[in-house]
Request: fold
Amino acid sequence: MNSTELWERYQHWLYYNEELEFYLDVSRMRFDAGFVHSMKPKLQKAFQDMAALERGAIANPDENRMVGHYWLRNPDLAPTEEIKQDILETLQQIETFTQKVHRGEIYPPGASKFTDILSIGIGGSALGPQFVAAALAPQNPPLALHFIDNTDPTGIDKTLANLGSRLNTTLVLVISKSGGTPETRNGMVEVKTAFQNRNLDFAAHTVAITGKGSKLENIAKSEGWITTFPMHDWVGGRTSEMSAVGLVAAALQGIDIRAMVTGAKIMDNATRIPELKNNPAALLALAWYFAGNGKGEKDMVVLPYKDSLLLFSRYLQQLVMESLGKEKDLDGNTVYQGIAVYGNKGSTDQHAYVQQLREGVPNFFATFIEVLRDRQGDSPEVEPGVTAGDYLSGLLQGTRQALYENQRDSITVTIKEVNPYTVGSLIALYERAVGFYATLVNINAYHQPGVEAGKKAAASVLALQNRVMQVLTSAKVPLSLSELAAKAESSDQIEAIYKIVRHLHNNGRGVILEGNPGNPASLRISRLN
Reply:
């Protein structure tokens, strides 16, 4: 297309929401009118399915659950009065708790106020809060936020070391719907031990965010933790930022959570309109479908041109990939669906991988996130008539054009500024786009059998470790790997046993390896008495 035709296409496909001051440009996705026409039946079904979801249809058959994160932003849409009141009461509880913490009415033993938050969670219980904190936390928040989001001992040590003497003024959030998530449980035990080692009362510092009646809620109540907040069973982890999972930490940092919820509500309203050109989430889903031929054949590269949105691509990785990465479709057919997501910020990463994006393997489409307002206040000129923000805008536009000239498609999402209102709207936009796309390709976006399979596999390894240690405890002489596997009745898992004993040996866990670790057959294994 020549420049005049591109300008006409841009105007034709540009979406603008005046209330949000939000723009979406899909004009550099090279679909044509025939493709759009062919997608109309699928899009109509997507609109119908989304409406049924919001009315309370069972969308997670694995757990017989509704999917209702939309109700968090608009409780009047909840299918029952009980759910509506639960949402309203939880939001009020969060605000009341936050006010009491900020005023020093809830405080740690031996100090006047809490100074820090230590959030223990994994997956959606960490990624959403991390993204929001990076995007919105003030320069000097009322409480500084820290995370334990993995079961890596070194990482836990580093986080605790960063807190240092402030552990005695740290408020701990333990986030797990069931209370049985191993990584979160491990983090809680590690932090509890750190408190005990300093003669601090862990319970007097700790809040649970968990399902009603869960194992974690029972622990919190029996040990006398400060309070608990609910995790609703109809909210999945990757869509939980507008629940207590995300709002407690955000509010404690001084972020306007009502503005986040309002921004999400307005975007939800916009994405309910059953017309393609007037629905930004439907436009995104259509563009994704076109880019990957409905089979995820191209990756989504997310490039936010704002430092504060650095973690947006990481947040979207879980939202998109856990929702859409499915082996089976709704009819039981093997389809291997999904869209791989990666990215980082512009313009830094123009120096890292735009060379490949423009001239290398064309296995992607780009999503530029543009922020119109450079900063609060005026900017100095870095050269006559040009500011640093002008350069950033120019680099975005130039990269978009350079990619298009070389047959690489892109989407541009534009917001006026990064604030709670716009961040809430972005979260809602992509949650809805994922739901629409899932319907277009006939998969369930709201379960995660692959994740559950991974958890079961990890549990089986730990069960094997217990059997191995029992065998070694009773063994009279050192054993070869094959002998150890036979006695553990696991001869078909000899490689796993090798890795187990190697790990235990290298961590001083009472396992002795004699021989060459690089030649597993030479090893003789025993247990230190």
The chain has a mean pLDDT of 94. The first strand starts at residue 15 and ends at 17. The two ends are 77 Å apart (CA to CA).
